[in-house]
Amino acid sequence: MEYDQTLDVCGLCCAEPIRRITKALQGIEAGAVLLVTADKASMTKDIPSYCKQTTHDLIHQQETNGKLQFWIRKHA
């Protein structure tokens, strides 16, 4: 799946992954896709919820070798 930028939030907890995702999304243009890699199971709930609240599109998510990946398209 294609993406424009990557962000690794592995090892981070609490609100820090969401803060970093917000900052990364602010740095890309509308319509661009951010690929986020995480290792905390809580992200499977936190990131979809974040996308719903901010109207960014979670276009795909998957788990590979214990790593969670989320493709987020920045909303206009």
Write up this protein:
The chain is of the alpha+beta class and 76 residues long. The chain has one domain: TusA-like domain (Translation Initiation Factor IF3), CATH 3.30.110.40. It is 30% helix and 33% strand. It has a 4-stranded mixed β-sheet with strand order 1-2-4-3, covered by helices on one side. The radius of gyration is 11 Å and the shape is globular.
State the main characteristics.
about 80 residues, alpha+beta, Translation Initiation Factor IF3, 4-stranded mixed β-sheet, about 30% helix, about 35% strand
Radius of gyration: 11 Å
Q: What ranges have pLDDT less than 50 throughout 5 or more consecutive residues?
A: none
Name of the top-level CATH class: Alpha Beta
Q: Give helix and strand order, one letter per element, not per position.
A: EHEHEE
Instruction: Please provide the count of β strands.
Output: 4
Q: What is the CATH-assigned architecture?
A: 2-Layer Sandwich
**CATH homologous superfamily?**
TusA-like domain
The CATH topology is Translation Initiation Factor IF3
Alpha plus pi helix count: 2
Topology (elements, then pairings):
Layout: E1 5-8, H1 16-26, E2 33-38, H2 43-54, E3 57-64, E4 67-73
Parallel strand pairs: 1-2
Antiparallel strand pairs: 2-4, 3-4
Entry summary:
This protein is α+β, with helices and mostly antiparallel strands and 76 residues long. The chain has helices spanning 16-26, 43-54, and strands at residues 5-8, 33-38, 57-64, 67-73. The chain has a single domain, classed as 2-Layer Sandwich (Translation Initiation Factor IF3), CATH 3.30.110.
